[in-house]
Every structure is written in C-alpha cells, then in structure tokens.
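ping. complex inputs:
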Amino acid sequence: MYQYIARRLMLTIPVVFGVSIIVFSIIRLIPGDPARAIAGVNATPQFIEQVRVRYLLDQPLYVQYGRFLTDFMRGELGNSIFSGRPVTTEIGERFPRTLLLATVSLVIATMLGVTAGIVSATRRNSLFDNASMLVALVGVAAPVFWMALMLQLLFAVQLRILPATGIGTLRHIVLPSITLGTASAALMARITRSSMLDVLRQDFITTARAKGLNERLVVYKHALKNALIPVVTVLGLQFGILLGGAVLTETVFAWPGVGRLLVDAILRRDYPIVQGTVMLLALLFVLINLVVDIVYAFLDPRIHYQAGSGE
Amino acid sequence: MRTDDRTTATAAIQEAAQDHGLQDGATVRKKTSELREVIRHLVRNRAAVIGLVIIGGFVFTSVFAPLFATHEPLRTELGNRLQPPSREHLLGTDELGRDLFSRMLYGGRISLNIGVISVLIGVMIGVPIGAISGYFGGRLDILTQRFIDIMIAFPGILLAIVVVTVLGVGVENVMIATGIASIPIYARLVRGSVLAIKEQSYVAAAYAAGLGDGRIIFRQILPNCLAPIIVQSTFQIATSILWAAGLGFLGLGAQAPTPEWGAILSNGRAYIRTAHHLTTYPGLAILLMVLGFNLVGDGLRDALDPKTR
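pong. complex structure:
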C-alpha cells in the first residue's frame, strides 16, 4: 500500500513538470514577441527591453525555462498587465472564491446525485427512477452558461427572490452553485444508480437477505459501502469538471473568481495572469487526483497494489 | 416513461442472453450478422431511437439550411430589432434585426461540423498513440502515458481554452482545440483495449504467422477496439459541441457575425430582460443536439456490449 502511494507520488512529478512546460510555452507559442506579450501591448520600448532582460528572453529556451521555474518556486509570477498588481495577489484574492463555489457545488451535487441514485436503484423503474434519470440526461446535456441564464431569468428577473450576479451574502451563492453542480449531480446520479444495481445483484447481498436481514440494513450497510467506490473515483474527475465549469459559471454570475480572471485575461491579452491561473487550475487538479487515488487505494480492499505493476 | 421501457427492454434482453448462455462474447458471429444484431438492438431501444431522430433532424435541417431559412442569416435590418417570435420571424430577431430562426439553422451546421471534425482529429491522433503505446509497451508506453497524464492535468474545457489562447479565436481553431482536448481520452481508451486484446490467441497466431507489427495493430487489433471507439466518439461529439459552444459564449470561439449557437447566446445575454428568445432558443438547440448524441451513445454502448445484449 505504501509502496503504491510512493509510486503514485513519483508519477506526479513528471506531470507537474509537464504542466509547467505547457504553461511556459503559451507565451512563446503565440505569434509575436514574448517580451511584448509579458509587458503588454502599450508598454514602452524601454520596459519591453527590461522584461526581455528580466526573463532572459534573449537566451536559449532552456535558460528561459530555468528562470521561469525558479521564479515560479519563489512565487514570482510577474505583474498583471491590466492592473499592474502582482499575479500572486490577483490570484490569491480570487482563488478562495472559486474554491468556495466549487466546493459548495460539489457538496450539493454529491448529496443530490447520490441520494437520487440510491433511491432510483432501490425503486427501479418507479416513477421517481424514470423522472430522475430523465432529469439527469437533460442535466448532462444542458450547457452550463445557458442553465445559468435560465436560472437568472427565473429567480432574479421574474420571481425576484435571488440576486442575479455578484457576491457578498449567502443568497449570492445559491444560483451559481446550483448551475455549476447540475451536470455533476446528474453524472453522479447515473453512476450511483448503475453501481448500486450492480452491487444489489451480487451474491453477498442475496446472502444478507437470506439471513433475514432487514432490507434497509442490506441496502444502506452492505450495498451502499461497495456501491460508493466508483462514485469516489469520479469525485476527482467531478472536481475537475467543476473547475473547468467555473470558468463559464463565474463569467455569467460576475463571480470574481479565478475562472473569470482567466477569461478576462485571455480577452485582454494579460498573459502573466493567463500563465498563473492556468498553472494553478492544472496543479490543483493534479493534486486532487492524487488525493482521490490514495483514498481509493484505502477504500477498495479488493485491489492489492504492488510497486512496479501496471496502471 | 421512455427510460422505463428502455431499462426493462435491456433487462429482458439480459435475461434472455443469460438463459441462452450468451455471455462475455462467447458467440462468434460473422461481421454482417454482428452489424445487423447491433442495429436490431439499437432500434429496439426507444431512447436511442429518439436520439437518432434528434440527430437526423439536425443533420437534415443543417444540410438543407438554405431551403428552410426564411431570411438571409447575416442580413441586418435595423428597423426590425429584437422582435419577439412571430409568423414572419419564427424565433424573433436579434439586436441587429437578423432572423434568429435562419441564423440558428446555419448555427446547427457549425455545431455539427465542429463536433464531427474535432472527433476526427481526436481519433486520428489519439487512437494511433494509444494503440502503439499499448502494443509495444515498455519505455515508449511509459513515456506516452506520462505525456497523456500531462494533457489530462488540464481539466475539461481548460485544455481547449489553453489551445485557443495560443492559436487564436475562430471556428477552425475551436475544432482544433476541442480535437486536441479529446486526444488523451482516445489514447487512454485504446491503450486499455489493446492491452486486453494483445493477450488473445489470434494475435499470437498472427504473430507466429509472421505478420508485421503494423499489420497486426491495424488488421488484427484495432478492428476489435472499434466498439469502444465508436461509443466514445458519439459521446465525444456531444462534449465537443458543448465545449465549442462554451468557447463561443466566452468570446474565445466563433466570432461575430458567425451564427454559432454559443456566440448567438452570448450576444443575446445583454437583452435577456427584454428579448429572452435570443438566449432561450440557442441554448435549447445545444441541449437537444447534445442530448441526441448522448442518447445514441448510451444505446450504442448497450447494443455493442455482449454482456448487456
């Protein structure tokens, strides 16, 4: 087990380097002068020269990458072209808001999705099962930004019971988190349902029932524990989808998080901010997947992990 | 109700299959009867048929968009701005007086094109990577897998956003971006299938018969990975359409005046209080198209999987 964890940690290292290389490449792959991209379109020639010297842009690529990496380790990500403030400050201010939104959405999605999945599986082909699976199908297919606008239209414009945009109060997070959580809830409902149905077909459930155990105990103690394993494995994936979806959701709800920061930065060609936010979102996703894999290893007793074995 | 019939139908088929001892692909059929079998299961699945009808409808109206369009999709008519749906303008007009119905017909073309072409890009690059990685194994495999890990580190739409940042906006770049974003999915999927198929005796037989690696991969192994690739591609078209619409909505995809659904929706946002048809209908169209592909994907997965047949 610990060998597996160690091996899993080792595998993360090349990924982190790979992510940094991709982020490093963004500025160097866009057409034009990278120094101008970092300094901004309206920068003076002197400032562009300063930037060129500071980031060693007249040196070979591997030297530039070395500087990029040491800068990153020290938390020096440059300044935003648009606001002039350090990238770390800009991101530091907004990141907790994105994390809050994604976490609330994940909690809502898990509660709704897992509950609906369990009820659907135990009452297979009931009205509830059919209705919730239909809602789940639509929930996966609906574009996030459209859901957001329709919820705004209904709750903010027509019923006037919730604010359409902004942050501040608890009421502000209701619509964004529902919007962001819908697709995840729908996916989790489908996964929980099919996983639960699989488990309920297993021999040990028949045995438990044959022993005369109460059906409630069979479902919630014996079956659920095993049925949730696949749900846990997709949690990490869900969180990633939420982080990606946050880019769209935050834009619609004027939620000042890193997703919106990224979109604004791309549209304004504020490349230092683009680098910082992309790096943050990718590394966060890598970290989450690492944690999920380790939790999974502890959860699933059927798998014995050996160092050196396949994936 | 539709899902009801579908699940009962699947369950019935499963039971029938078990009764006849047809499990785990134990039966080997000829290719034509296999295809007929798949189609038979697909058309019996009501949800999948609904999906096929939805996709068919979109394909039909997209191909014949010029015939169905009541107006020129790009012609502005400033005296006729933000009109609600009427007999003259079936879905109303936008902020420049353009006919929304006609624009959306052409928008369907764009979305279908993006979905199909991006999947083709993903398949053409991802499948060979996965096949070679799984077949040869060893260092090459480790190297490719780490590379795929790096691509997967950018969650969902983020990889497409990064690619668009580098390439620039526009419909063609969206196709490339969403295509690249789907490469790791295919590489992983095909590698897994190849690892399983590699152990089959007919592959060993082909090797013993002196067939080259290329022939074994393309003639013996890949044809047997087709089922998961087809299922994944159906779902991936849906995902690509969603990603492309998201990019269009963010202003990172199709640009004005291209009548792409995400972009139309994004433009209409400013008028949501007075003319919400500009946001409602394009969103519904995206939803329907994505739903269609997902329903067919579900159906194909059941129809192609010998276990659920």
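Residues 3-308 of chain B form a domain with the MetI-like fold fold (CATH 1.10.3720.10).
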